[in-house]
């Protein structure tokens, strides 16, 4: 079975920085859109053995440049989704 | 649910060009290694709705440049695995 470790990493960033990302909507639809957008902008890191993902993540999270890139990609994806959410939540009350 | 359409596309290429790729071993372990290596060299194409993968694949397969890149990436991954297979098949009979 192959796994793209970046999926877990982006999921973790979304959870850890949820408040700072200021998503206008945190529904499943919107967070999934942010994840897909971010992953399409990040180099994949597939492993054939899920046990190896811990190692790959450690290398990633230990590299300041990778972390900075990761945060900027996720932040950009979050603002794209926030400016144009595709879910059917009603934003009129929130913004007035 | 998010899906990287490239996973299906690489799987399809492996099946369609199995003979031309001349993998020294076609066991699950080796084909999975080829898939992971190839995917790590290809820009991901995540979709949030699996029904959209058909559309993304059509655009990909309709672009000669993408198809050429895809075939060269998979061929390179296949030759890397063939020159250094990690599975425990015994290659001594095959090569003597």
Automatic annotation (TrEMBL), chains A, B:
<protein>
    <submittedName>
        <fullName>Late competence development ComFB family protein</fullName>
    </submittedName>
</protein>
<dbReference type="Pfam" id="PF10719">
    <property type="entry name" value="ComFB"/>
</dbReference>
<dbReference type="InterPro" id="IPR019657">
    <property type="entry name" value="ComFB"/>
</dbReference>
């Amino acid at each position: 079975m192959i796994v793209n470790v970046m999926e877990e990493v982006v999921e973790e960033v979304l959870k850890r920085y949820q408040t700072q990302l200021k998503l206008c909507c945190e529904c499943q639809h919107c967070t999934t859109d942010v994840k897909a957008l971010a992953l399409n902008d990040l180099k994949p890191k597939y492993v054939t053995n899920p046990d190896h993902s811990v190692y790959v993540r450690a290398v990633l999270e230990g590299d300041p440049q990778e972390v900075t890139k990761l945060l900027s990609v996720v932040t950009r994806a979050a603002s794209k989704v926030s400016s144009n959410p595709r879910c059917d939540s009603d934003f009129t009350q929130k913004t007035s």
